[in-house]
């Protein structure tokens, strides 16, 4: 994740009066012990920028500010420096001690954010020590007029809700994940293998193929589009090797044979699993497939209620493959529409659709719902790649994930 | 036009009793004197297949049958041979002498066509000699139950209506015109130059670009898609020369500089003028642009009522360019929607939209309406190419049209 340029990371400034538990909250969000935690007020001094990862939000920069209500001359300097970071932040987490409540300090921060059109999430922390009443919650929410979450950084309570609130508050550009362009240098060549079968729409290409071409052009690279039958001729027509071959999964085996080993090879499905979700978590989920045993409960979740075709992927094909791998009948359940079922923890696996009708933010929050419930989650694309035995090779552009298999 | 494979030509079988004027009708449709015209019944003997062109219907094969009611043994043989050609025909023109009316013979033909699901157009000919009354017309139409047109092959009356009836009766496959695939051999490489400007839809390609890629793949060729800034790098990456470079008109000058002279070069607009209409007639229409004089009436015709943007092509840009070329104000009129104005002959030029919302058949019949009125017609794409001075080079895949300029 260190390859992520700083500019693409979501910059989250954390504000809070001394000893509200900012550092503990950062640790809880990142599962790391990087922030210095102490119960002596004012341990954190100048604003510190820390590149971190919050799963599944992705790479972030946490801007850890000094306790902004510090007294004395040094304190005033700290306050000024802390407010300067608002220019560099994409959003603000405002941490309140449940026992202390809202003061002029928090109202100032909320107003400054409003003036700067900066999204803000209020976290009422230390719920374990001072349980927050419904009344206090509602009052805080109304006083500050922003999205509010109750947490205990100590017990982990509410941490996933903070992550969801972060994703929902992040600016529109945060959603922007390149399809493949971030894997290419300007002038690089990407070969796209596009079978034309009876399912292809007449006279068109399917949207993921079009989006991939566009993404390549947007990154000043070049897209060479061929049917699988022309892949070899295409390779021979080139003076230099392509950077990557991207194939429809159907043609993966043929593409794998005809792609030199030092050329990256992946599928549209893998690229779109990353574009539309959290590839790392989905690949980890794929590993759970081999642990399925007859009788296990499996949730197949679709975001929309599409017209089911014969040999439908979600109701026929994937169940058939998973049954074969499990060596017996599985207890499938299906969900579709806006929400995943509340009781996710009873499932051994969640298999989610490709999310073509929902955005990345929504898919990430669904993936997190499964993670919070401790259930492995894959999407259709990663599941099919695993079942076909092509997942490892198809992860060639992502060596860390490839090694994790 | 001799390059058109026989299989792609619309096969029209012409039936009619002896001396109904079949041969004169063929001559009138094709503006040729190929059919042997004589007033002696039965001059035409065995069915004869003639590759011809009916403008703007396109390349056809006229199956000129023997007078099918011939008497005697030789006559019976002719009848049998004539009926066999129905298997090879896409549609039937049934010619009736206005003086003779409908007999069992015509009813047989109409019934046989119905049984074979073959479209049929009845032509009541020789209206000049025996004017057809409304009553006779209606009676004929009802007796045969098919599309009916009154003509005089001698005076030319009704000939354009026959052409329109042919286009409307032609089978669905007749509409199918390749975008560029018919100019490519399997394994050929086509470079597509696709500028990404602020007007491009976010994350997509515009439909004509997608359709062109698909058409290339459908013809077992390869599509290399690049922005204009990468065209040179793309050329250098290749072992062999591409067959053709297809560019957005915006990037034409740059593409023209960077495309070797022995590589075909055209624009999406030119390909779509051909795909959606009759390129030959539109190119002929372009030549009329230089004859425009101040005060001339020009019709700008759009098939749909789209939302007009600032600097709209039909209301702002094209009028501006044409005014400049004419050296003064022109008398513009605009039409939109289903039909062209009836009084086309008052215009010096018809400039039609790109026909993205209507099909080829509809566009061809609109082009013909202008032709019948004796008015030159161009579409936006050809007009812009002419105005930009790139039409000649952009016609490089069509040498006959290029020479005609």
Automatic annotation (TrEMBL), chains A, B:
Is NADP found in the keyword set? Answer: no
| Location of the G domain | 11-126
What Pfam families does this protein map onto?
HydF_dimer, HydF_tetramer, MMR_HSR1
| Documented EC number(s) | 3.6.-.-
Q: Which GO terms describe its cellular component?
A: cytoplasm
Which keywords does the record carry? GTP-binding, Hydrolase, Nucleotide-binding
Primary enzyme class = hydrolase
PANTHER family with a match to the protein in the record: TRANSLATION INITIATION FACTOR IF-2, TRNA MODIFICATION GTPASE GTPBP3
The identity of this protein, by name, is tRNA modification GTPase MnmE
Organism lineage reads as:
Bacteria, Bacillati, Bacillota, Clostridia, Eubacteriales
- Gene that encodes it: mnmE_2
């Amino acid at each position: 994740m260190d390859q992520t340029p700083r500019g693409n990371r979501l910059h989250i400034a954390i504000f809070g009066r001394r000893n509200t538990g900012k550092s503990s909250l950062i640790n809880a969000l990142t599962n790391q012990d990087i922030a210095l935690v102490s119960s002596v007020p004012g341990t954190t001094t100048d604003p510190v920028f820390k590149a971190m990862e919050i799963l599944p939000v992705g790479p972030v920069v946490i801007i850890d500010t000094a306790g902004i209500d510090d007294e004395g001359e040094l304190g005033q300097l700290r306050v000024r420096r802390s407010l300067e970071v608002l220019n560099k932040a994409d959003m603000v987490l405002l941490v309140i001690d449940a026992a202390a409540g809202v003061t002029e300090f928090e109202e100032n921060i909320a107003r400054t954010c409003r003036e700067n059109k900066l999204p803000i999430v209020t976290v009422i922390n230390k719920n374990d020590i001072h349980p927050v009443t419904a009344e206090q919650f509602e009052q805080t929410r109304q006083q500050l007029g922003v999205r509010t979450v109750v947490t205990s950084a100590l017990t982990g309570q509410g941490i996933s809700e903070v992550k969801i609130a972060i994703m929902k508050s992040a600016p529109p550009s945060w959603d922007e994940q390149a399809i493949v362009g971030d894997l290419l240098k300007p002038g690089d060549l990407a070969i796209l293998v596009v079978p034309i079968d009876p399912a292809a729409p007449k006279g068109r290409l399917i949207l993921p193929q079009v989006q991939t071409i566009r993404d390549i052009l947007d990154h000043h690279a070049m897209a060479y589009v061929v049917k699988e039958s022309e892949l070899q001729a295409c390779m021979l027509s080139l003076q230099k090797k392509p950077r990557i071959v991207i194939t429809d999964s159907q043609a993966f085996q043929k593409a794998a044979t005809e792609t030199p080993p030092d050329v990256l090879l992946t599928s549209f499905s893998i690229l779109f699993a990353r574009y539309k979700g959290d590839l790392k978590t989905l690949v980890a989920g794929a590993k759970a497939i081999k642990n399925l045993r007859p009788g296990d409960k499996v949730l197949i979740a679709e975001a929309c209620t599409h017209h089911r075709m014969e040999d439908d992927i979600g109701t026929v094909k994937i169940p058939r493959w998973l049954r074969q791998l499990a060596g017996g009948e599985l207890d499938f359940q299906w969900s579709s529409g806006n929400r995943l079922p509340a009781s996710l923890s009873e499932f051994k696996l969640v298999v989610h659709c490709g999310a073509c009708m929902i955005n990345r933010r929504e898919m990430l929050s669904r993936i997190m719902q499964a993670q919070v419930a401790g259930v492995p989650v894959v999407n259709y694309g990663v599941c099919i790649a695993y079942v076909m035995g092509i997942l490892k090779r198809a992860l060639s552009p992502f060596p860390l994930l490839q090694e994790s298999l």
